[in-house]
Design goal:
The protein has 147 residues and is mainly alpha-helical. It contains seven helices and two strands; from the N terminus they run H-H-E-H-H-H-H-E-H. It has a single domain, classed as DNA polymerase, domain 1 (Orthogonal Bundle). Strands 1-2 form a two-stranded antiparallel ribbon.
Length: 147
């Protein structure tokens, strides 16, 4: 059975939380905690990139964005783990080259620059807000701020 990254993260989070809570450890953030950060891959909705991808690769936009985003996550993860930091934009371009090649698409440097630049138009997916809001226990004073 194959799991998507989001399904895996949700399952792993639940497993870890159940293990911690099952030991009787109370989750109380220190008084100094003022915010909780989430990874941009999970929060930002890549749907805004699809129209740009369709303009660059007609009929293949959604598939390109899906393959690109997946590879981009993998590249960032592996480079971080391997201690070989690369700028987010550089990693985005490298992942885009791979995804386009895997789909048999020819992208020019200008096409790639346009797509990488389009990532800046991504906004937090509001459909995800209720899920992430549940991570901030009400009794510790933390809130989820969707905007």
């Amino acid at each position: 059975m194959l799991l998507r990254r989001r399904e895996f993260v949700a399952a792993a989070s639940g497993f870890v939380a159940s293990g911690v809570l099952g030991r009787g450890v109370a989750l109380r953030p220190a008084a100094r905690v003022r915010a909780v950060a989430f990874d941009g891959f999970a929060i930002f909705d890549a749907a805004a990139i699809v129209p740009v991808a369709e303009a660059v690769a007609p009929g293949n936009g959604r598939e390109l964005v899906t393959a690109w985003r997946s590879r981009h996550f993998e590249y960032q993860w592996l480079r971080t783990l391997g201690g070989q930091y690369a700028d987010f934009q550089r990693t985005a371009d490298d992942a885009l080259v791979f995804a386009a090649h895997a789909l048999g698409l020819e992208l020019t440097a200008a096409d790639r620059a346009r797509l990488v630049s389009a990532q800046r138009t991504c906004v937090p997916g509001m459909t995800r807000a209720p899920r992430y809001a549940s991570f901030a226990p009400r009794d510790c004073g933390l809130r989820f701020c969707p905007t």
